[in-house]
Amino acid sequence: MRTYGQYCGIAKSLDTIGDRWTLLIVRELLALGPCRHTDLRNGLPGIASNLLVDRLIHREAAPPPVATTLFSLTERGRELEPVLRELSRWGIPLLREPAGSDTFRTHWLDMPARALTDHRPDQPAIALQLHADGNEDLVIEVKDGSVHTHAGRVDHPTASLTGPPHLLAASLLRDVDLSAAVQQGLRLSGEREAVLRILPR
Asked: Sheet of 69-73: strands edge to edge?
């Protein structure tokens, strides 16, 4: 293991998580939960197939009939969620100019979505479906003041947002007003008020 050789909390943390791909592996497992090696590879285009972080990753055999190994975060790995949330927040301005060649997965919006606030906790539960063109879906569920996310679909979402990644991200982060995003090509179906209920003010 490479080390900075410095007796400092920041340096020691970077000794563990500073290698390329490490935090992105953690991002995937926080967003998806336990998953197969192929699921991890799908969310990490360009990663070497033999690269997984032993210090933060737990491996276990999936129960029958699935004959595969599942990867999940250790307790220490899960403790990185606030760190990733802050990195995500810090990186929001860097998303304003999308690079046409950048890869995107809808579940990468998981971390910014978890930071949203339910501004109407007294209202009934809602489910918002996000779909970036050509990608899988992300569900944002809001109930009793809490916001939870998961990959996949729900049968009857309260509202759906569909469109290019940069408009989905800009809308969620309130970098672009929802009406302006719709004028630029974001498609909104269902209850507009349900979407506005969680957007930053």
From this structure: 35-36, 69-73, 57-61
Tell me the CA end-to-end span of the chain in Å, nearest whole number: 45
The tokens of 197 are what? 């209920």
Please tell me whether the peptide bond between 82 and the residue prior to it is cis, using omega within 30 degrees of 0.
Answer: no
Locus of tokens 């080390």:
3
Q: Is 103 helix (H, G, I), strand (E, B) or coil?
A: coil
Bridge partner list, 58: 72
10 phi and psi angles, rounded to 5 deg:
-65, -45
The candidate with the shortest Cα–Cα distance to 143, out of 155, 126, 160, is: 126
Q: Which residues contact 199 (CB under 8 A, 6 or more apart)?
A: 116, 171, 172, 174, 178
CA dist., res. 70 & res. 108, Å (int) = 20
pLDDT in tens, 118-165: 999 999 999 999 998 778 899 999 999 999 999 899 999 999 999 988
- Burial of residue 74 (CB within 10 Å: 0-12, 13-18, 19+) is middle
pLDDT 10s digits, 158-167: 999 999 888 8
By percentage, how much of the chain surpasses pLDDT 70?
A: 98
Query: In the structure, how many helices (H) and strands (E) does the chain have?
Result: 9, 8
Of 108-112, 179-183, 194-198, give the lowest mean pLDDT range: 108-112
